[in-house]
Amino acid sequence: MMCTISDPLQIPHKYYQRGDLIIGAITFQFGYIFDEIPFHECPKAKFVPLSTPKNYQHVLSMVFAVKEINENFKIVPNVSLGFHIYDAYLNAKITSQNTLKLLSARERMVPNFKCDEQMNLIAVIGGLDSDISLQMATILGIYKIPQIAYSALASVTDVKSELPFFYRMVPNEAHLYKGIVQLLLHFQWTWVGIIAADDENGERFLHTLMSIFSKNKICTALRKKTPVISQTEETVSSTETILAKAISIANSKVNVLVVNAEPHAIAWLTWMIYFYSLLEDISVDSISKVWIMTTQWAFSKQTMHRAIEIQVFHGSLSFSIHSNEVAGFTKFLRDFHPHLQKGDDFVRIFWENAFDCIFLESNDGKKNHACSGQEKLENLPGTFFEMRMTGRSYSIYNAIHAISQALHKIYTFRPKFKVIEDKGRLASAYLQPWQIHHFLRTMTFNNTAGDTSSFDENGELGAGFDIINWVTFPNQSFLRVKVGGMDPQSLPGQEFTINEKAIMWHSTFNQVLPLAVCNAKCHPGYSRKKKEGKPFCCYDCAPCPDGKISDKKDMDDCLKCPENQFPHKNRDRCLPKIQNFLSFNAPLGITLAFLAVSFSLITVLVLGIFIKNQNTPIVKANNRDLTFSLLISLLLCFLCSLLFIGQPQTVSCHLQQTAFGIIFTVAVSCVLAKTITVVLAFMATKPGSTMRKWVGKRLANSILLGCSLIQAIICTVWLSTAPPFTDSDMHSLAEEIILGCNEGSATMFYCVLGYLGFLAIVSLSVAFLARKLPDSFNEAKFITFSMLVFCSVWLSFVPSYLSTKGKYMVAVEIFSILASSAGLLSCIFFPKCYIIILRPGLNSKDQLFARNLKV
User: Fold this and answer.
1) CATH number corresponding to 14-170+390-454
2) If you average pLDDT over every residue of the chain, what do you get?
3) Is 591 left (phi over 0), alpha (psi -120 to 50) or beta?
4) Is 389 helix (H, G, I), strand (E, B) or coil?
5) In sequence order, what DSSP letters do the residues of 777-804 get, joined into one string?
6) Out of 212, 411, 728, 790, which residue is the most buried by the measure of CB atoms under 10 Å away?
7) pTM here?
């Protein structure tokens, strides 16, 4: 037996209202299942009560919008709008059939023919499901009839070229995916599950989202597919399969589930949860998950889910098409009466299913209570019907107004488009649907709710999404709370917004932010370490190595502290380094400063003694002027050590080494001049000696000035080429910044020390040779001891200086200055002070001559 087009499936439900121009619509109110198809007869459809009462608001929003436009004569004057609504039943075959019915006469399906009673169809709205909408677009595109879909749809490769007459009263899905990722990243949810329908759209949703998740370091811990509503009873998934999926979802440790909320996916998900609660004998409310729903989510239940609790969805988040309160719609619903709806084949079934009653004329002996028709829509639970316009109803409402605004422009510019008038009325018989297409594509309009709507270049709504938090109550009511949004038209970086404080989480979370991670986060002081064979969201926590820290949770790598900071022992933060320099307030600095001042006072005392006794033989014996010069230079040596104490400054750095080098050179030059004077004086006493002309102040002064001038020249070259400067050593000590003076030129620094050492060795050598010369007040012995001390100190200084850091390095140099200066002072002048103060009898000419005679 062959089935022809004259044997269409007899689906009874439609809603028709006359008008000069007709707007078609394909909605989803009920479900159909086909019986097993024998080969000897045509397939027959079996109606099943898969009724979703809330979807009837889609019909009412269209009725309300058409009524509003027809009552406003400023929009399309003298032209009335009508509509013709069919149900899609989520079935491709029935959708194709009913789409063809919209293109045919009212009571017959004769496509491609113009009949007398042919409706003047100008546009079509629908459908709810992606596949249904694209099924319609394939047919309507042939006739160039504009179609406006009102729900989220599968993306098309090139909408503009493939479906030029296809519009969507929803934003681009790319913004939805981006919003989901931004939401997960905001709450640091990286271990999430995905639930989608087991069809092409669900597969596309899974593939797209998983790819985006991977790029943003989010792991897909759970992937589940819900069965689609089948065409045959045998292919419907068994109860065992449903239970297996429900148990897997409920028992998983995944707290956050992203759901592609296609109507049939949500229906099966609800059944899964319900069966699981019965199997485990638990309350649905105890299943604590954070559900993130896509735009198709409308928090609606089918009539067969009447007894199922909705508390499991408490605290859910969904991305919703923006909607607003439409003035007059609530009153329209309050005044709604089923007996007044002529031509509406949906209202009776909706009323009976929603209020669980039966009209008397169709009771057929059933025990359900009778429908009076006086029941109030506002008394229905929110899962069955809402008095506030839902997102999808709002999209249908805007779609009707978009069509009316296009008609308004056609009427306004009718001479340009040669639309014929008939007795003052727009001749609707001559209006072609393709004329509306031009205006829809470029139109921007404001609806009665105050929102601005327009289509972009791809025929999609140029807007974003609202983020809704769903708060449920035990009496099957709920609240939708806007907590954020995804607006692609905002400034870069401000597209995503969320108000955490406004979110109500599932009761089991006790208003604590739910966690969605594979394992506990790594605390500060640790970094993430990949687990072999596990997804990248699963990791171990490894302590930070020495010298590095992590100051946040879940850091991929530990970080080095800035140069002026060092890691805390817990390696969770950086602490400021202490400045390391020899301070006047530190015990070591105080001690050294005290020694320097003490030795300076002793030197002043010795100088005072020598000045007071300057005419005595012991003072005059070894060049009184050199003695005073040596004491003054030793005084300056003690005082110059103070330049090394305190925080280094540019001036102090310039003076430290140069002043030390020049002053010490003067002191050593004085010692050298004294020693040479002693040797020459002895040689001059020999008969016939020619050395007498060299004995005197002139030679001593020449030695002093000549040796000092060479050191001064070296220091001048040093300061003019590469002078010392303040420096900060960040690395030598882990917890301290060494503040000091950098020599600038190490070569010049060691030239100063080398020249000073050369003079000291020469002085030591000459003094050593002259130590046994017969002279009552011969200083050579004392100079020999003093220079031995001096050379010993500075020979030990070099390795000690190079092996220490920070303030201790400076302390070594200060100690060397003080020790060497004190050695000269004590070895040369203390014996003389002993004679001057305690043995003044030895300080006389007689004693001098007596000692000379003995020799």
Assistant:
1) 3.40.50.2300
2) 80
3) alpha
4) coil
5) T--HHHHHHHHHHHHHHHHHHHHHHHH-
6) 790
7) 0.68
